[in-house]
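Recap from last week: sequence in, structure out.
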Amino acid sequence: MPRSEGHSKTAHNQDAKLRTLERRTQAAQMRLAGATYKEIADRLGYANPSGPCNAVKALIEEVEIENGKQLLSQEMMRLDRMQLGVWPQAIQGDCGAIATVLKIMERRAKLCGLDAPEKMHVATSVAEEMAAFIERRKQEGHSIE
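Predicted structure tokens:
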């Protein structure tokens, strides 16, 4: 395939993505203005009302994801700056600074989902379970033979 043909496909894909984004944005603006999904579909050329409904949902999801990523990035930068401020004291053995660095590291791990969930083990014996079951059945008025 000639290089210009590959470049042309990339440009075409980018144009298509831009048109899709513009159409989604128009659908969202119309919906915010009070238009029904049927009205939006008719005006923007969607086949049925589910088209603009899905477009608006997709746009909202993209914005939420981007906002979430941006917020996480900002929080990580704040934690980095805080850690940088106390790091020299921590590596010199200052117990307060070490505790602060550990709290910062814990917060970072929590934000990034680095900590594995804690496993809980509940042990009961089969005999205990059977005894409890029999007792419940007796209290309910059932005869146990």
